[in-house]
Amino acid sequence: MKKQRLSLMAYLLLTCCLVMFLGKPATSLAQAPDKEKDGSKILNVGVGIELNALYPLNDSTNYMGTKLCYESLIYFEDGKFVPGLAESWEFSEDGKSLTFHLRENISFHDGSSFNTEAVKANYEYAKSNPNFARIKAISNCERMELVDDRTIIFHYPNPYFAYLNDFCYPDLMALVSPAVIEEGNFLSMKDVVGTGPYIYKENAEGEYVRFIRNEDYWGDRPYYDEIIMKYIPESSSRLQALKTGEIDLIFSSELLSWDDYEQALSIDGVAGKVSETDSETRNLVLNAGSPSLSDVRVRKAIAYAIDKEAIVNGLSKGNEKAAYRLFSPGVKYTDFDLDTTYIFDQEKAAKLLDEAGWAINTKTGIREKEGRSLSLSYTYYAAGAMNSLIASTIKSQLADVGIDVKTEAQDMMTWWQNCTMGNYDITQWDTETAFASPHNYFTNYAISMPQAPYISSLEGAQDFLDLISEFQTTGDESRVAEIFEQILNYVNDNVLDLPISYVKEMVVYRTGAIADFEFSGVPTHFDPILITPAE
Question: How far is residue 431's CA from residue 441's CA, in Å, rounded to a whole number?
Fold first, then answer.
């Protein structure tokens, strides 16, 4: 998010401060409620990070909590925009004005009315926050016109094909009670107050966060009286908690590797499901500014040396599909054949490395050039369930063609800082979910992405960057399609991004508590309304 051109590193510093300083309402050290107590219907969920920073501008690790408390004007479900707090919307003929018609009789958790004044207060606050720069629905907005309590018009200087997409972010675009907003304070809010089906009730630090049902919720009445998010950072401990019945459910590919998934299914009384649709792409970024990777032949050699089919068959047990394009099939504006497809071919990889002057040292098995070894640093975010497995597999595959790889797991802050400063050779930087793809992956390509430190030095880079600027100022879908074909071919031809596989989301649950689980239209988003409880 980032358009007064604030870097992603600055965003992370803000987020870090947020996690450290956000006020925590109703903090308690009491034991988590017993699911049998008073006949209450309680769902216990295992999470890998403490949900103690439920301010909407946060990262995906808090999605499970924010989705319970907050709601947005619209949502993205199965490739379509669907009503949320807005029941309908329309664009003006010139595409420069977007009108939302709000639902009636909705209140925030503090009892205040949800109306256009509240929407305006939220988005004026967001617009003043430099971290919203890439959210064009906000940063491009010239003014918000309140027609009445239920009708608001967003006025823009130009059409843009993805304004509606931007409103679908479940965290950034979530609406809060204006009473908790502090002007100019982008680190915290006074309280956690939304319109969602659950109310943030209690935080026992290091143990759990408790949500209680919003009895005045405007939508379908949730089944569970309470939802307890239990903080269990270790994967093996989460599986043990599932086995003993301490928790009922573990959700998401961030918390479950495919080995974890299979291990969970081996437990008596535990079932699981895999999402039918892909959620994002596991993707590598190659640092074309690195001395070892500045020659495109070396980057192409890496692309040919990685056996994606072996990765998905081995690590995902065949559940995921190998990715030969940056975005999965069905993502709008990306369904075309690339000029080049990098199919696993070690001979071709070796030939390219030979042509680039990197010769095998027969004693070490590592390629050298002018007295320097072809040794690469591969960094990744430590908490991702599959990240270390992918890194070690790629390390082994590249060793087969004489490339030495040193892998390093890093905490989120260190990893993001190093990425945006160019302190890596290879890093894993996955794409975003469907409603944000492909546009928001490229909006900050030259500003706050791992490619930013070097992109302007590449041949043809200015034309590439001009295309990125152009798609942000047009509503002409045929032109948008042309632009993305050029953008994606440029990235692919230069091997700046190297997609590995398309992610499937996972869930495992105790059948004594849950009869069935249905993934939402954006499978990374947890929605307890879609859970069928056991009788």
Answer: 6
Summarised one tens digit per residue, pLDDT across range 24-48 is: 444 333 445 555 556 789 999 999 8
CA distance 359 to 206: 52
Per the CB < 8 A criterion, the answer to whether 99 and 88 are in contact is: no
Longest dimension (CA), the chain: 78
Residue 532 near residue 519 (C-beta atoms within 8 A): no
Short-list 64, 87, 65, CA closest to 74 = 87
Judge contact between 323 and 368, C-beta under 8 A: no
Start-end of H helices in 77-199: 116-128, 136-139, 163-166
**Is residue 392 classed as helix, strand or coil in its secondary structure?**
helix
Q: Each residue of 459-505: pLDDT tens digit?
A: 999 999 999 999 999 999 999 999 999 999 999 999 999 999 999 99
Helix, strand or coil, per DSSP, at residue 99: strand
Kindly report, residue by residue over 89-122, the tens digit of the pLDDT.
999 999 999 999 999 999 999 999 999 999 999 9
What is the Cβ-side half-sphere exposure of residue 355, based on CA atoms within 13 angstroms?
13
Interior CA angle at 473 toward 467 and 478, to 5°?
70
| Band (68; pLDDT cuts 50, 70, 90) | very high
Peptide bond preceding 329: is omega within 30 degrees of 0, i.e. cis?
no
**b/e per residue 253-278 (b: at least 16 CB within 10 A):** bbbbbbebbebbeebeebbbebbebb
Confidence of residue 64 (pLDDT cuts 50, 70, 90): confident
CB 53 within 8 A of CB 450: no
264-268 contact pairs (CB < 8 A, 24+): 264/239, 264/508, 265/508, 267/239, 267/242, 267/243
CA distances to 5, 158, 275, 439, 484 from 443, in Å? 11, 16, 28, 6, 12
Q: pLDDT tens-digit profile of 134-151? A: 889 999 999 999 999 999
Q: What is the pLDDT of residues 237-285, one digit of tens each?
A: 999 999 999 999 999 998 999 999 999 999 999 999 999 999 999 999 9
Q: Is the dihedral of CA 281, 518, 55, 123 positive or negative?
A: positive
For residue 14, what are its two tokens? 């803000």
Secondary structure (DSSP) of 446-474: TTSSTTTTTGGGSTTHHHHHHHHHHHTT-
Residue closest to 119 by CA, chosen among 94, 92, 97, 147: 147
Q: Where are the alpha helices (DSSP H) in 332-453?
A: 346-355, 387-399, 412-421, 439-442
Structure-token pair, residue 181: 């907003």
